[in-house]
Write a structure and sequence with these properties.
With 171 residues, this protein is an alpha+beta fold. The protein has a single domain, classed as Glutaredoxin (3-Layer(aba) Sandwich), CATH 3.40.30. It has four helices and eleven strands, in the order βββββαβαβαββββα. It has helices spanning 62-78, 92-102, 117-121, 160-170; strands at 3-10, 13-18, 32-34, 40-42, 51-55, 84-88, 108-111, 125-126, 131-132, 135-139, 145-150. A five-stranded mixed beta sheet has the order 7-6-5-10-11. The chain has a four-stranded antiparallel beta sheet with strand order 1-2-8-9. Strands 3-4 form a two-stranded antiparallel sheet. Strand 10 and strand 11 form a beta hairpin. The N and C termini lie far apart (36 Å).
Amino acid sequence: MMERKNLVSLHGNPLTLVGPELKVGDRAPEFTALDNDLQPVSLSTFRGRNVVLSVVPSLDTPTCDLQTRRFNAEAERLGPDVPVLTLSMDLPFAQKRWCGAAGARNVRTLSDHRDAAFGTSYGLLIKELRLLARAVLVLDREGMIRYLQIVPEVGSEPDYAAALAALAKLG
């Protein structure tokens, strides 16, 4: 499996990402992750709709909490036709607990804990931590990546405005 170094860090310490380097214009790889009820959910379920993928290391950390709450608020404004999926390595039980405590009803949390299929196919699995790197992707109706930000410092928030602007361009 391909490894890429020095793209992300945690507290300034460089980390290794496992998987390919995806770019804007690439087709988003298919993946299946588990929802809060342990049911498999595949990306193909959302084909024909623009999709936001909000990727976080763990919902139980302050920055991931902020990011997911922010996208939950944005998802309410975007409406049900634009799915906002939050992916992490958290167990589905932990994701369900977090959603209940945070009142998050507009984002759909998906767990990649089982086999890291999402992380490795999107090049976002952090080798040293077995967590996902912080990232935001916007996919168009055909499943093409139209926006991609891998946040260089895992503890920093993404550029929400840029992601939402890219989504707005898709109409």
